[in-house]
Amino acid sequence: MNVYDYGNTSADIILLQPVDEHDLNTLDNEISCIRENIDADFGLFAFGIDDWNRELSPWEAPAVFGKNDFGAGAEDTLREILKYCDTTKTCIIGGYSLAGLFALWSAYRTDVFSAVAAASPSVWFPGFYDLMEKSTILTGNVYLSLGDREEKAKNPVMATVGDRIRAAHDLLSDRGINCCLEWNAGNHFRDADIRTAKAFSWAIRNADKTE
User: Fold this and answer.
1) Strand partners, 115
2) What's 171's domain CATH number?
């Protein structure tokens, strides 16, 4: 796993984000957008993911699009990311799409994250809402977002994402979590960098809030 650092990684706020090649190409714009919204110094570690479906999936599941099944590599990925977490700092994990789901899942595995920034997370992932119902999230602040056309996907599994994210927001809010659900214009493939920047910006502003 290649790790890339941006901004001031000695700052008191550290952002951690799994990325693919497309994300790497737009990270500069994402960071610029965060700086436009946040008057605080921060550093960002970007973790290059080679096998998206395997390295970010919490457990095995059959493919819902294409031919690549989902693996169970999230534990190994989280273990590597945690090496870059300093418990004396404000650490925020976030990401887009399956990386957003991974970020949300990570907060059920460890309490080191002050906030989660899950932009258009793949909450349609089989069995994930069941985990949310049965488990306790270990952070007090969660940002969720979705494009307003994402639940109109032709794939029947992915089309459940709207109902799932509404249910996730309600569940977390009912359990006393400071949880935001923001709707963006467009489908899943629109403005991923801007949506992720909005997610991290909210997370930075809310990271010091308690449950």
Assistant:
1) 92
2) 3.40.50.1820
Position 211 scores a pLDDT of 41
Q: Is residue 44 part of a domain?
A: yes
Per DSSP (E only), the strands in the chain are 3-7, 13-19, 43-48, 90-96, 115-119, 141-147, 178-184
d(CA 22, CA 168) in angstroms, rounded, equals 27
* Count of domains for the chain: 1
pLDDT lower than 50: segments of the chain: 211
Residue 96: enclosing H or E segment and its boundaries? strand 90-96
Amino acid at residue number 152 = K
Q: Is residue 79 part of a domain?
A: yes
Q: Say which amino acid occupies 63.
A: A
d(CA 135, CA 61): 20
In a domain, 195, yes or no: yes
Nearest CA to 52 out of 78, 19, 3 is that of 19
Helix (H, G, I), strand (E, B) or coil at 118: strand
By residue range, what is the domain housing residue 124? Answer: 3-206
pLDDT digits (tens, 9 = 90+) for 125-139: 999 999 999 999 999
Position 211 in a domain:
no
Q: What is the pTM of this model?
A: 0.94
